[in-house]
């Protein structure tokens, strides 16, 4: 009976077939101890000379790390074994040889590992990160699906900028035309919301930012909900509920993976509603209290966000940023037009912004003016202006960066480990 290691506890006393890779090997006299991984867990397989014979036992002497194997044997309980179970091997077969595997138990530099990312993801910690990433994505999808949102895909190739013209990746598009890799699905998702009411987009986004910080990638994934007839408060409440839901789900289902990463879960256990909410003005005053030379009107950098977040034991929400530092599509605050109805959600422990959004500009004339002020090509936004010509309503949404959320929940030093194959300023391979 073929089985997976994650189901091994239910197979005690039975003969099973296991397919996987050799994680590590040690020998003691006439016994080999093979730690096998199959993508679902680790299991110790015991090969004794008396059980398999001289020739098969000798073959096991020369197995290299990551050799692909098929093993047949009896599962038995053993409290001393990792996971509490072992396999007494009756026979095994080499499926694919592996010799001189480059990633050994010794310490390796980060560039060495990233050059071999296709192999590095086989390690226990990297597997744990990717399993948590999967759980986060699944939790996000369930959160929106359960609330009546409709997943609607948005284009990856776009005719113009969404977030700023300086961070676009141009792509040749037939007959000397130029397209751009999307910075966000938001603008198209606004159109989707006018059709379906509550929608979300989930896909890759691209930013040509020449940044070398631990929080930036040139290719990353975002979930972007958009809601018709939504106010800034509606958007903020939705963002808070999403974060609480995702963290709770990971704590409930991924304790083994969090333990593998040696993640202190106490800060995550504090992620409960309500989150503290600060206006931009209040946040600036807190920075000044802490001695930071921050000038009103500027955007918060990573050190500023870290200082703000350290004041609280859970994520903090900052709203109503100056309109001048936000995108052209942000709705101005009716009480103070120099401010925008915008919101950022900052993760604790120095991880900074993981959500950015707000209420969108719904007035045709003002949006048209903003497009001109930002020197954006009007013809490329005629379809977007149509949303204000034909039944415009207040609406809003946000974007959540998946890699930043994964990095925060996993306690990673850099977002490059939060995605299977990171793309950064100096890395396009593997």
Would you identify the CATH architecture of the largest domain? 2-Layer Sandwich
User: CATH topology of the largest domain, which one?
Assistant: BirA Bifunctional Protein, domain 2
Query: How many domains is the backbone divided into?
Result: 2
What is the CATH homologous superfamily assignment of the largest domain?
A: Bira Bifunctional Protein, Domain 2
- Rounded mean pLDDT score: 95
Strand content: 25-35%
Structural class: alpha+beta
Q: How would you sum up the global shape?
A: elongated
Strand order of the largest sheet: 7-11-12-17-16-15-14-13
How far apart lie the N and C ends?
37 Å
Radius of gyration: 26 Å
Number of helices: 14
Helical percentage: 25-40%
Write the layout of secondary structure elements.
Blueprint: E1 2-3, E2 15-28, E3 31-37, E4 42-48, H1 49-52, H2 54-60, E5 68-77, E6 85-96, H3 110-115, H4 117-120, H5 124-146, E7 150-151, E8 157-158, E9 170-173, E10 177-181, H6 186-196, E11 198-206, E12 219-228, H7 232-253, H8 255-260, H9 266-269, E13 277-279, H10 280-289, H11 302-310, E14 316-319, E15 342-347, E16 352-359, H12 364-373, H13 382-389, E17 395-401, H14 402-410
Parallel strand pairs: 1-2, 4-6, 7-11, 13-14
Antiparallel strand pairs: 2-3, 2-5, 3-4, 5-6, 8-10, 9-10, 11-12, 12-17, 14-15, 15-16, 16-17
Helix pairs in contact: 5-7, 5-14
